[in-house]
Prior knowledge:
Layout: H1 15-18, E1 38-42, H2 48-53, H3 70-79, H4 82-93, H5 103-136, E2 139-145, E3 148-153, E4 162-166, E5 174-180, E6 186-190, H6 192-195, E7 200-204, E8 223-227, E9 239-243, E10 246-250, E11 255-256, E12 261-263, E13 267-274, H7 280-284, H8 294-327, H9 352-366, H10 375-391, E14 406-407, E15 419-425, E16 431-442, E17 445-447, H11 453-462, E18 466-468, E19 471-473, H12 475-478, H13 507-519, E20 524-527, E21 534-537, H14 541-553, E22 556-560, E23 564-570, E24 577-588, E25 596-602, E26 608-614, H15 616-619, H16 631-643, E27 647-656, H17 658-672, H18 679-690, E28 695-706, H19 710-719, E29 723-727, H20 732-747, E30 755-759, H21 764-772, H22 775-799, E31 805-809, H23 811-817, H24 823-831, E32 835-838, H25 843-857, E33 860-865, H26 871-876, E34 879-883, H27 890-893, E35 897-899, H28 904-944, H29 955-965, H30 967-976, H31 982-987, H32 993-996, H33 1003-1029, H34 1042-1064, H35 1070-1091, H36 1095-1098, H37 1104-1109, H38 1113-1140, H39 1144-1154, H40 1160-1167, H41 1178-1184, H42 1188-1197
Parallel strand pairs: 15-29, 15-33, 29-32, 30-31, 31-32, 33-34, 34-35
Antiparallel strand pairs: 1-8, 2-3, 2-4, 4-13, 5-11, 5-13, 6-7, 6-12, 8-9, 9-10, 14-35, 16-17, 16-28, 18-19, 20-21, 22-23, 23-24, 24-25, 25-26, 26-27, 27-28
Helix pairs in contact: 3-5, 4-5, 5-29, 8-9, 8-28, 10-28, 10-30, 11-20, 13-14, 16-20, 17-18, 19-28, 21-22, 22-23, 22-24, 28-30, 28-33, 28-34, 30-35, 33-34, 33-38, 34-35, 34-38
Amino acid sequence: MKTGRKKKINFSxxxxxxxxxxxxxxDHSQIGGPGFSRVVYCNESDGLESSSxxxxxxxxxxxxxxxxxxxxxxxxxxxxxxxxxxxxxxxILSFTALAxxxxxxxxxxxxxxxxxxxxKEGIEDxxxxxxxxxxxxxxxxxxxxxxxxxxxxxxxxxxxDIVKVEKDEFFPADLLLLSSSYxxxxxxxxxxxxxxxxxxxxxxxxxxxxxxxxxxxIKDFRAVVKCEDPNANLYSFVGSMEFHEQQFPLSPQxxxxxxxxxxxxxxxxxAVIFTxxxxxxxxxxTDPPSKRSKIEKKMDKIIYFLFGVLxxxxxxxxxxxxxxxxxxxxxxxxxxxxxxxxANIFFDPDRAxxxxxxxxxxxxxxxxxxxxxxxxxxxxxxxxxxxxFINQDVNMYYEEADKPAHARTSNLNEELGQVxxxxxxxTGTLTCNSMEFIKCSVAGTAYGYGVTxxxxxxxxxxxxxxxxxxxxxxxxxxGNTKKSTVKGFNFDDDRIMNGHWITEPYSDxxxxxxxxxxxxxxxxxxxxxxxxxxxxxxxxPDEAAFVIAAREIxxxxxxxxxxxxxxxxxxxxxxxxxxxxxxxLNILEFNSTRKRMSVIVRDEEGKLLLLTKGADSVxxxxxxxxxxxFEVETREHVNExxxxxxxxLILAYRELxxxxxxxxxxxxxxxxxxxxxxxxxxxxxxxEEIEKDLILLGATAVEDKLQQGVPECIDKLAQAGIKxxxxxxxxxxxxxxxxxxxxxxxxxxLRQGMKQVAITLxxxxxxALEKAGDKNAIAKASKQSVLKQINEGKSQVAASRSEAFALxxxxxxxxxxxxxxxxxxxxxxxxGCASVICCRSSPKQKALVTRLVKEGTNRTTLAIxxxxxxxxxxxxxxxxxxxxxxxxMQAVMSSDIAIAQFxxxxxxxxxxxxWCYRRIxxxxxxxxxxxxxxxxxxxxxxxxxxxxxxxAYNDWFLSLYNVFFTSLPVIAMGxxxxxxxxxxxxxxxxLYQEGVQNLLFTWRRIIGWMLNGVCSGVIIFFFCKEALxxxxxxxxxxxxxxxxxGATMYTCVVWVVNCQMALAISYFTLIQHIVIWGGIAFWYxxxxxxxxxxxxxxxxxxxxxxxxxxxxxxxxxVTLSVVISALIPYYxxxxxxxxxxxxFHGMIQWIRHEGHSDDPEYCDMxxxxxxxxxxxxxTARSLAxxxxxxxxxxxxxx
Length: 1198
């Protein structure tokens, strides 16, 4: 056996690399037409023809702003918010005589708030700019003429340039592969950044350009490429190349996409076809849908509500003011001091209606403090800080891969605490996506003693001994069964291992079975030059497992040449190992539509063989009459494997005659070299004709193990009342197993005794119609069948409210269930079930199911996945979680939050989600409370002054209330407050339901906080007014003046709202002490400093504290009395609720306070409240067998 990778690998005769060798006789009719108008002059990027095309540059910008657009665009973004726009209007009006305060005091806070938001936007965009600069300034070798290549920055590339990309470098643009360091012009490409797949792809240039081996060969190269216009389809490319006056069709096999990486190849030469934003990867990088949390949307409604209240009280005050002003003409009116006969327009009794209108505008400005100007920016700051805490959480750090959690957006933090339904991918998300060959069925005989996780869990659950190799396993050996040291191979059966298969009754079929596994694939062998060991680069973990299994049984695939596959195998006749070569004629690749893969080879005896492997749903129907000898046994074994949670494939073959092959080869070559958008359909049509009358060999079974911690995570999420849907591409039987076996016992998604509602079109009636081939009849019957099964399922669920149901639906049925006239019923059925599993789901179906749940329930949905096929689902859900696993980064790049393992979802939701929801909800409620408290004192004072438009406070007191004196405590609460510790959040998952049911941000709670603000404002105003109005305030006998009343009320407001914060938070930190008590202290410092300034600037605050307030004992008595009185209503309500009507977090606080946190029986009793008949998880399963509450009552009774 030869060792070492050779540079002379040749794949030119394989169909995948055979395209483009036909002459101009091929069909190029679409080239030059609509959608196919791009013309590229290779190696002439500076020529006249190229310059006239005006293609985009290779500079890529992902920033939202430019230096010129930042100011106008960012300002537009800020003033799209209704509150900010309102404050802009009031700021403009403050320059008029209508304003009750100075313009500067109104504009400065607006500038601070808007400026802070713009700075945040600018910093985020600058980070994107830095990333763009790094990418655009990467360098690549570009042909400068005369065969000379110089390093040039990516951003300077032009369409038509010839570039030389070396090993482990990224492709700087979409390139047409011209040649490579391999003689046959192939190269290995890693597309992880594009489609999430880590397996290497094989690309090959046209044969006519494969001799461009050296830099100097590029000197005289000229060609014209005509191809499709820029588009987002990563897997298609239609075009032709005119070279030496001949046309050669181009396919995706010659296209190297930007951001993919060159691997295992020294260098390639390529022509730039698409640059910059025309490249396919950038075309795919559409902006993710704008997502706003439900709380943020509701917050807008609250602001509209407050604005309505503001307008109402301004209108009432203005009407009253107009009436009183008109009465000023009557003699003896108490407002004689206004001298109505000489009043201006604002107080003129003769123009009372106009005065009322002007007053209305003044009141709108004065009462604007009801709406918190710093609300939006405060929430943005809090969310950014919350995201930092999520990113820094060591309990969500995956050390093995060095991957922490990463919140890619901070807009949805509180949504993490309100998730009602999780829609999860399976492979790579719940499982490891690391396949192991564990069992097989050959010639109707089952082989493989390997024990799956499911079988172990089932045996433990049933209490029955598990047989291994005919012997029972006890508890000690359950977890210590024999484990292969070969990655991807966990097969154990002495009947066929170590060459023993030659003694089996059907040894010839076993030989064909494993020979098929060794030949039917697209894997690439890599032989270690030192050890001689063979490893494989395969397009999927499944395929790698099959080739490894064949090698371990004795059929070692070790070499692939330009026309053959070589296998080292055991000869049945001689009993010796021999090297056999199989001429490789065609590969019919696997895709999601075909669900199978075939190769056509010629063996050493000259026989033409069609070797096929595929899903049972498409393979059994392609068996010939003489090929069904082992069908019954194989079907039984496949079902058993599915019950054990294994993924299965059917293997079959047949011999071809020369005439049949030649006819197929002509049709296939014509279809493959067709330059049209329906090329794939033409290929499928041709392959259908030959993949028939197959002879069954057997079936394979591979295991995809669960990720660590998945069962426990699902159990906790289920206890939290979160519904979990699994959207998988597995077959129906395997999907049912996922629910009733794998997740029943290992993952706990479905409980024992849970009834199944399976919706499938795998029934005799539909099968008969499919054989008849009447598409209309099939569609009609399928739709009726699905509707009937949905209605029957709904009846089952409605008739038994106390039982739990599981819904399992296959992809075909799902297509009809998602149609307009069925989706409502389907959703009603699904929401009545504890668990839902959708199998054979396409990426589009995953997204549609997610949309249906989101829009149909109006609850928060979370989608989690790890592959490119999950992107639509992630973007459609309210929250998209990307798993940064082995399937690449596309799901992560399309997600809102990235985590390394599914198990981290438990902490992300139950801890961070709950905290963020509670903090944001409480923060917003408190914001409105403090502003209403402040606004009510303004309103009452203006009413006290007969709605004259006189503000109670100094201009700067008004302006700085939200910005300095009360903003930091609320930000600290939004970042640090914890009603329950992380340990208790995980110990009592039902706490999460506070967010799902939105108990902390209901209109009742919001209005309650507003009423608390009204109550506080009323108490502050009337206590201060009555306490200061009659008696002498100063030592010299003078009474309290207007400015003294205003400063005293303001002091009381600052004290009350900050002390209210101290009462509302549950978890004090040093920072909270500093900002709460520091905010109060800062008010006194400000009053001293501001009062010491010139009277022209400080106006009514001039020395008011030093000369009037500080020396007067009654000021301190009034302050203390008002603060206590204003806080008594909230304190009383909170105490009564906590003692007699506690919410769930209150109950947990009582458990901690009374020392019951370590009492398992008491905790179980509290936790039992979260378990309902429809709850899933192993905790629910165990509690379903007994009721701890009943046990507790029985014990107490005894």
